[in-house]
């Protein structure tokens, strides 16, 4: 999955635009009944699989490009071992906007691969992706082979309309040469240690500007996003009634107060000046890879970028540091998300589409092959422990986090990523000093999110 996928800090504004288009198109699908066709037979059972020698073509939309496109195409073509006459037409660089338009126009791809798990609520609630339950039950698939957190971000409202195709976990990267020079031997484990490390690792120029940041606390920037920080503080998004409850949460307050403590150490203006001179997250000029930042949040996929773009960099990985009082409960866990694969509404041969979805989400050799090529985490328990998985010491840390039982994903909602955008927008105002009252500011965010949730529940 190019693992520069879903969360990707530098891409957040685009994600908001994508969701707006998805939501609008989904609403139109609901209003006009959408494209014809469906996923199961008329009696509610799963559509039949193709015969072994049937000749047909399955079109797949994904956002993969370049090297990663070739790796995924190879994985898709593994289906030929079972169905030698099925041709796969893989169309890369296709975003969710294009996918929604194709469903609305009655010409969807046979299989959809999406980086944006936060759109799943819209896909499921409108029927844009078909319910996979009949297929799972018919084929007697044990869905528990998928870890709990991954299962949660591939279903909505009890409806499974997607399957996972690999996963991401967001840990902590440290420059080991810089740590050693500062007399530090391992990555920080708590927020107290993170603050102390930040002070020791930061270097200032003679004029007081930042030369090297021990840790950059600005949100959103690279993978500094509220949803990636939140699990490390034990902060959750919704209460038992499904409403936003940030202002009443001590964990969210702890998180933002800690962020502000780091901002104040540097000075907001100095951070903005420093940040403006840093390279693009996915280029060879990535600030961590260039030695401009000593510690950073990032996904397991960053290792592949480092090996390719900064092979001389000495680095290590670790679980992200957590709030001191949450160390026993949370350390070793992290935020998780992943690429999803689904069958759009209106496909002509859903039985064949399901065979490809099953191949890419449950077949252990395929998942191991994809993981080794893309450096993402395989998303079933069997593939996680397969001896063919190529594991470095740095990658093993992410496998350990994935198996920790302490993963937290974003909640699936029918407002897509609107709640994430609201909190990250607040973080920008908070760090700049434009939200002087934390609780009052979070109450406004709660009201904004709850208003959007209520509109969707009311059919708006």
UniProtKB/TrEMBL annotation:
PROSITE patterns: PROKAR_LIPOPROTEIN
Subcellular location: Cell envelope
Organism: Amycolatopsis xylanica
Main location: other
Transmembrane regions: none
Name of the protein: Multiple sugar transport system substrate-binding protein
Lineage: Bacteria, Bacillati, Actinomycetota, Actinomycetes, Pseudonocardiales
One cellular component term from this protein's GO annotations in UniProt: cell envelope
Leader sequence residues: 1-26
Keywords: Signal, Sugar transport, Transport
């Amino acid at each position: 999955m190019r693992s520069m996928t879903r969360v990707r800090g530098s891409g957040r504004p685009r994600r908001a635009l994508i969701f707006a288009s998805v939501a609008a198109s989904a609403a139109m699908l609901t209003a006009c009944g959408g494209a014809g066709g469906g996923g199961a037979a008329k009696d509610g059972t799963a559509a039949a699989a193709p015969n072994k020698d049937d000749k047909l073509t399955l079109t797949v939309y994904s956002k993969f490009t370049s090297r990663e496109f070739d790796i995924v195409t190879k994985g898709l073509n593994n289906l030929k071992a079972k169905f030698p006459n099925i041709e796969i037409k893989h169309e890369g660089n296709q975003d969710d906007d294009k996918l929604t338009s194709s469903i609305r126009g009655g010409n969807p791809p046979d299989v959809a691969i999406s980086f944006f798990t936060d759109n799943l609520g819209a896909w499921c609630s409108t029927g844009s992706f078909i319910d996979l339950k009949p297929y799972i039950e018919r084929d007697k698939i044990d869905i528990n082979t998928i870890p709990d957190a991954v299962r949660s971000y591939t279903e909505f409202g009890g409806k499974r309309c997607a399957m996972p195709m690999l996963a991401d976990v967001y840990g902590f990267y440290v420059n080991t040469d810089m740590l050693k020079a500062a007399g530090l031997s391992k990555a920080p484990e708590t927020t107290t240690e993170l603050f102390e490390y930040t002070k020791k690792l930061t270097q200032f120029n003679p004029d007081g500007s930042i030369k090297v940041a021990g840790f950059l606390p600005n949100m959103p920037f690279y993978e500094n996003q509220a949803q990636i920080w939140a699990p490390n503080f034990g902060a959750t998004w919704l209460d038992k009634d499904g409403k936003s409850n940030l202002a009443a949460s001590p964990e969210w307050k702890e998180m933002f107060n800690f962020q502000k403590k780091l901002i104040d150490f540097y000075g907001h203006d100095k951070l903005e000046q420093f940040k403006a001179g840093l390279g693009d997250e996915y280029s060879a000029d990535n600030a961590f890879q260039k030695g401009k930042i000593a510690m950073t949040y990032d996904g397991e996929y960053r290792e592949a970028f480092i090996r390719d773009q900064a092979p001389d960099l000495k680095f290590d990985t670790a679980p992200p540091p957590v709030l001191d009082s949450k160390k026993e409960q949370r350390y070793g866990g992290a935020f998780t998300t992943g690429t999803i694969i689904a069958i759009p509404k209106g496909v002509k041969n859903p039985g064949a589409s399901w065979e490809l979805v099953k191949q890419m989400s449950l077949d252990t050799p395929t998942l191991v092959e994809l993981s080794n090529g893309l450096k993402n985490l395989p998303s079933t328990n069997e593939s996680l422990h397969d001896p063919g998985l190529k594991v470095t010491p740095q990658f093993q840390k992410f496998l350990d986090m994935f198996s920790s039982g302490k993963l937290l994903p974003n909640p699936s909602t029918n407002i897509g990523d609107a709640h994430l955008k609201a909190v990250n927008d607040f973080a920008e105002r908070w760090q700049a000093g434009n939200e002087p009252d934390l609780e009052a500011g979070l109450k406004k965010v709660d009201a904004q999110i709850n208003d959007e949730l209520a509109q969707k529940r009311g059919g708006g």
